[in-house]
Amino acid sequence: MRMVDLIEKKRDGAVLTEEEIKFIIRGYTNDDIPDYQMSAWAMAVFFRGMTDEESAALTDAIVHSGDTIDLSAIEGVKVDKHSTGGVGDTTTLVLAPLVASAGVPVAKMSGRGLGHTGGTIDKLESIPGFSVEITNDRFIELVNRNKVAVIGQTADLTPADKKLYSLRDVTATVNSIPLIASSIMSKKLASGADAIVLDVKTGSGAFMKELEDAKELARTMVKIGNDLGRHTSAVISDMTQPLGFAIGNALEMKEAIDTLNGRGPKDLTELCLTLGSRMVLQAKKADSLEEARAMLEKVIEDGSALENLKTFVESQNGDKSVIDHPDRLPAARHTFEVKAKESGYVTGITADRIGTAAMVLGAGRATKQSEIDLAVGLVLRKKIGEKVEEGETLVTVHSNQENIEDCVNRIYESYTISAEKTEAPPLVYEVIDK
Ligand code: URA
Ligand code: CA
Fold first, then answer.
1. DSSP states of 118-131 as a string?
2. Catalytic residue among 22, 123, 187, 223
3. What's the CA gap between 114 and 324, in Å, rounded?
4. Please, is 347 exposed, middle or buried when counting C-beta atoms within 10 Å of its C-beta (0-12, 13-18, 19+)?
5. Strand 148-152 vs strand 106-110: parallel, antiparallel, or unpaired?
6. What is the number of other CB atoms lying within 10 angstroms of the CB of residue 3?
7. Please, what sign has the CA dihedral across residues 393, 394, 400, 404?
């Protein structure tokens, strides 16, 4: 086989075979296929797309480009959740102890990553002492005992994806549904999940700004997962504004604790119940979504979800007293109120722009080397559909710097206040199951 022929084949709109796709991914991982040929191929895929069979074959080839994790020593159906990203998305912190206390094993492997705020690990590390540096054996033991544990990524998962994703980044080929779907699904499959619940975001703060594109991405990922033998479903949820109120690591940790206490923001709580019920169902811990949801509502109400979080934190060396006393989480030196300059209704909060307002305070990483400030971030006081008077607070800024001009400008740029009222956007647009 010659790469040039396969580029030509895809360029002309033909369908590649599984063998051909394996050849491409193996060759690229081994450096036998150079970046310039891979770039041309990615651009051909960008314009011509892929069939569902090609997308599944591509995913499978990427999974087998590196290590895969074997979670078979953990009892039960391991269900993983993946969100396609968003701003202030605190769902993982809530969902892990929530579904674990309903008996679903949560074996979470996490990286740190770039973004408006840190990843799940950074947020958990805002709890003094909490550590993800545990051995594999300890990880498995903890999941079997407590139903939840988080470990830092050590294995070399999906090297083909690392290489291809960076190449796509500099060749304008990121935004291709088969390439995104295979990239995301390969990482989930390599990390050993038996079943997967996807939270595909749509709206201004999401990767997929248009609902139709989000649906197509969700449909493609659900098909890939099921074709490769893992029960996969997707919830398409709103990211035209941030989820919940908090954006920032310790602030989101506190928000997650509030939510597990039954006092969380309505939208965050509802999305966690929606995603969580699917996880419980796919883990075969309930026979229907209604039964699953009732189980989750019960573990919030009777305090067992919060108890599970305490055990989880304590087992990984964290100070569990923080959960009853969130004021012991890292706190910023200063708070500032950003006030409305006019009266009206909030009709828009551009999620990605407000995300950068948190990032300039130090809540997120711009480069892999950046240090993150766990204490800083934003708390939204007004969301879409709410009435606001001139001088009322829109956002509270938690900062360790006194000069927050850049942050404040970004907050004003992200809020739209109009004379006419708009309804809050729906939280969930559609659910796709096989
Ligand atoms: N996230 C990924 O992991 N891969 C993509 O291609 C896009 C978003
Ligand atoms: Ca939030």
1. --HHHHHTTSTT--
2. 187
3. 30
4. middle
5. parallel
6. 19
7. negative
Helix (H) or strand (E) holding 22: helix 18-29
Question: How many CB atoms are closer than 10 A to CB 11?
Answer: 15
Largest interatomic CA distance in the chain: 68
Q: What is the pTM of this model?
A: 0.94
Which mutation among 153, 169, 180, 201 tests ligand 1's pocket best, with the greatest number of atoms within 8 A of CB? 180
For residue 93, the model assigns a pLDDT of 95
What stretches in the chain show pLDDT beneath 50? none
What is residue 86's predicted lDDT score, i.e. its pLDDT?
Answer: 76
Q: How many CB atoms lie within 10 A of CB 66?
A: 17
Q: Which atom of ligand 1 is closest in space to residue 180's alpha carbon?
A: 6
pLDDT, position 107: 94
CB atoms within 10 A of CB 30: 11
How close is the Cα of 124 to the center of ligand 2, in Å? 14
Opening angle at CA 259, ends 308 and 421, nearest 5 = 165
Whole-number pLDDT of residue 385: 96
Closest CA to 250 of 143, 328, 320: 328
Q: What is the pLDDT of residues 43-93, one digit of tens each?
A: 999 999 999 999 999 999 999 999 999 999 999 999 999 998 778 779 999
